[in-house]
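Protein data sheet
==================
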Amino acid sequence: MTYSLKDIERNVLNVLSEEEEIHGYDLWKRLSSKGIKCHSNHLYIILKEMEEKGLLKGRWEENGKNINGGRRHLYSMGREGTEALNSSLMESLSLLMTSYVNYMRHKEDFTGFGKVVIDAFTQLDSPLPKEGEIVVLALSYHDPLTCYQLIFSLTDLFPRNAIYVVTPPGMEIFERRRNMTVLQGWRYDIPLKDGFTDYVIIEGFPSQVSEDETIDEAMRILRSGGKFVAQVKNTMVKEKRPEYPFFSEYVEELYYQLFKQDSEISAENIEKILTKYSRNQKSTDMMGTTVFYCEKDVLGT
């Protein structure tokens, strides 16, 4: 297989993302072990060009000798190299996310995820929405790993309830349901009046503002006695960060790191903030997600 210059550069950056520094010859061996065939002299030309572009940093090793007795050159990641690698990862993640959205576009049965929603309410000892009650769901910009299942499972589970979905400008919901209203807004700036809803569910905490501001905004639109739910991936919970034994968890971590839409939170701090609005808060774990819950009582009126 013939590899282009861009392919070789990308693979060099991948190797250097795993190593603080590496000799040119060792780098050539690593690439060869991955099936990337490139003449060593050609690789050194590419490395020099990458160094000139700022993708790599290079230095001569003091007292270091190569197999021919000459000094050895060490390479490490340059600032532009880190940016280029992150850009490549973001493109790959975007492609993966788009592929998943297209898959979800043709899926009709969301009962499996609906069961997860029911189980979460049961574990939190919370009543399900009664007929006629309003549910507001405020989403991050784009997280198809969770948001589409949640949107459509809610509309299917509660067909006689009004479901308001608040999405940031530019986010497209590929299908509308009869009981669904889509509004443009932010999790910290929801375009609804005070005391509007019976349930408010937020997905994660945005990085633009503090956790207090996001919770204050959710509580503003919640009537007294209404139910607040915040779902946060364990990837973004300091006390519960996983060790990433599964590929899906690693992809999730990359997504949050690279797109920087949400902030890492402390479960203890969220529970502390909720004491302003409720005498009783609860949390539970569901499928790698921490779910926070409280009922807004007279403390928050």
